[in-house]
Amino acid sequence: MQDTVNKEKGRRGGYAEFFYLSSHFIQMALPGKKRKIDVIDKLLEACYQHNKDALFIMSLMHQYEERGSLSRKQLEGLVLKAKKIEDIPVGWIAGVEAIILKMPVRDKTPVELTSNKQAETGEKWDKLIQQVLEKYPQHKRLLFLKAQLTQRKMLSASEQQEVEKFYQLLIVNKQ
User: pTM for the complete prediction?
Assistant: First the structure.
């Protein structure tokens, strides 16, 4: 009796294993579903095999296993380490370099103060509005835009175009 139970369990395990393996091969055979080669993992493994005591490589491997990705700087450091090892295929290094080139560059240049630019442009628009209002003091739209400038609000691009248009029509063309 005990032998028949074990055989049934073995058969069930065999069937489950068969279906798992067959589904795996079906997925590989389906067009459009390509298996991606993990070049980063291969490069990490090769660097680790070269020097098993390298803490940097070990920490990168741990982080790659945990998160599934590495930052641009970390990948650049990995490539520098890999270039020092002669046994690593050049294609793996080139693959990781291609991944690095696809990643965005975070430029950390200092931000310029735009308050001076805003003051200069505000003065420019204020002068144009003032010239038109000297000739046409009841112009409602320009009075509204002047009020916005006095409240220290910047004019939008469309409002700036309006001011230019009014200036061209009412001042430049009339002269």
Answer: 0.45
